[in-house]
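sorry for the late reply, my laptop died twice this morning and i had to redo everyting from scratch. anyway the thing you sent over, i finally got around to it. pasting the sequence first so we're on the same page, its 303 residues, then the predicted structure underneath. double check i copied it right bc i was rushing
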Amino acid sequence: MYAVVPTLNAAADWARFAPILSDCISPRLVLILDSSSHDGTPELARTAGFAIRNIPRAEFNHGGTRQFGIELLSDADVVVFLTQDAILADATAINMLIRAFDDPTVGAAYGRQLPRPGAEPIEAHARLFNYGQQSVVRSIADRERLGFKSIFISNSFAAYRRTALLAVGGFPKHVIFGEDTVVAGKLLLSGWKIAYTAEAEVYHSHSYTMTQEFRRYFDIGVLHAREGWLRREFGSAGGEGMRFVRSELSYLWGHCKWLIPDALSRTCLKWIGYRLGRIENKLNIRWKRMFSLHASFWHEDQR
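ok and here's the structure:
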């Protein structure tokens, strides 16, 4: 087992992130893929005993960079992926996650993401909605019941059986983001299962501005437009989106009613962003860069 962490200027998170990671896994089994940080991240990684590979920032891609890590670790059986702001809850988190692979039919597993300390209510609800208290193993049979939710997974804290990942082509090397969703869909269609391990926990959430929410959902729309097979095979994400909105309004009604107008405004912006992303092929590159949370992708897209 190895752990792979893409980083970019991770120094601000390092004191919380690195020590608990070293408690979970031997530092020599951690690979940092650093996108030319200028804040001392490479030096911090070396001091911690982690292996490090530097990549030009302009060459970073959510799928391509992670696939680079997979290709480097040719002797791995299971590879765990984390992001630099996902703080492991305790020293058992990674071991709890990889227990899922005791089942030989499991190709991927992901853990529970808890709201970070001090998270705002809207931010906290998103984590509580998407990451429940009960573990579950999903197969292609769950597609009829869960639809698009059946391929939910997050590489902020996930692990993959390397042979299964490579058997479905690995991570896509040119994708705006959502490389984890693409792989999850391919794994289920190929007969593998995906485990959600609620006992494996990290603290990880984001306080997005309204503009960031719009841009994030624009990118989701781009993913769904370019990977149209996901919707054909697993259905629209609209039903799950409506369930989220109802849950969010109920949560806010019980906790902080004054945030409901803010939440409704965000919902409208998400919908507009998503619809624009779905028609990105009709937009010029200037607008795509303006709308996207991953503007650098569009420079890569033109190469």
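The mean pLDDT is 95.
thats about all i looked at so far, will dig more tmrw
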